[in-house]
Amino acid sequence: MTPLFKAEQIVKRFGKHIALDNVSIEVPTQRIFGLLGPNGAGKTTLIRIMNRIIAPDSGTCYFNGKVMTDADTDRIGYMPEERGLYKKMSVSEHVLYLAQLKGMTQSDARKSWAEWVEKFNMQAWKNKKVEDLSKGMQQKVQFVCTVIHKPLFLILDEPFSGFDPVNADLVKNEILELKKNGTTIVLSTHSMASVEELCDDIAMIHKGQCVLNGSVQQIRKQFKTGEYEIVFAGNMVTFTTALWAGGKIISQTNLGTDLWKVRLVLNPQANINGLLHELIQKVEIKSLHEYLPGMHEIFVSHVKEGEKSPVSEGYTE
After folding, report:
1. pLDDT tens digits for 57-71?
2. 143 and 269 housed in the same domain
3. Residues 178 and 270 placed together within one structural domain of the fold
4. Both 65 and 203 in a single domain?
5. How many angstroms separate the CA atoms of 293 and 305, rounded?
6. Range of the domain at 159
């Protein structure tokens, strides 16, 4: 799939610290792209370069197939982790002001704002000052300010921080709707549950380098461990005998009379089809599920592995 955004061999230094070291990523069109990494990894630096807030020392960014220019920022929506609202302005004034800064006419901005007021049930506080809103309400305003001009490229940095579960689900649904309607989205988050729920592709940045890149499903399969969960009806001893050299039982749970759930790992020389052929002659297989590691496990293992190498000093992202 053609990328909407592409970063090619990006290098950025702050003094002696290399914040980004030849980082290359591609964000496919109309997909949700997770940007992952521990604090200080280089994610925020890369996001600022995507927005042309700062420039790389070397490397090139492409937008919609062309070298990126300042004019492209009108088609970008950016919601930073550090929320930036003018607290003395009313909510409506604030939203309309930022919408017009992104090139919307006043009439178009008012029409779009009215739609978002309805969506997010903002009627009761749309004319209040920003400083009088709760943190969650301010979050909603920030999100609307980011998307009101219908950006082609949307960059969200920890968008669910501060939301209760109900409002987090509300924003997640809007993100999926934006994707459905053609928006390409970069989601920077520490919530691996959100990554698995929303993201099509991910890149992991660690110590300024891209250490993992690809579709979520491909990456989970890449790190599979040969573990399976089998539910069967029959005798446990018979099952174990039939298993023999095909695999090793990790855990077993009795679910009721002659009903068992077993977690096992295949031996290197075995395959699941051959194992099933042996098992179905002895017990009744109810279900088979291949265990794939979650993004949380993959994230933690990569960070721990990266900590074995020296860490640059002198700068925190």
Report:
1. 999 999 999 999 999
2. no
3. no
4. yes
5. 16
6. 3-221
> What DSSP string describes 170-238?
HHHHHHHHHHHTT-EEEEE-S-HHHHHHH-SEEEEEETTEEEEEEEHHHHHHHT--SEEEEEEES-HHH
The single residue listed with the structure tokens 């930073």 is 80
Residue where a domain stops, chosen among 176, 205, 221: 221
How does DSSP classify residue 132? G
Residue with tokens 């009806």: 233
List pLDDT tens digits, range 269-280. 888 999 999 999
Which amino acid is located at 145 in the chain? Answer: C
Closest CA relative to residue 287, chosen from 268, 259, 267: 259
Please give the tally of structural domains in the chain. Answer: 2
Instruction: Name the one residue in this structure whose structure tokens are 């992202």.
Output: 317
SS3 category, 88: coil
What's the sign of the alpha-carbon dihedral 48, 52, 56, 58? positive
* Whether pLDDT at 140 is above 50: yes
Residues, the chain, total?
317
Choose among 99, 144, 150: nearest CA to 119. Answer: 144
| Mean pLDDT score across all residues of the chain | 90
Name every residue whose Cβ is closer than 8 Å to that of residue 70 and which is 6 or more positions away in sequence.
52
Residue at token pair 């921080």:
161
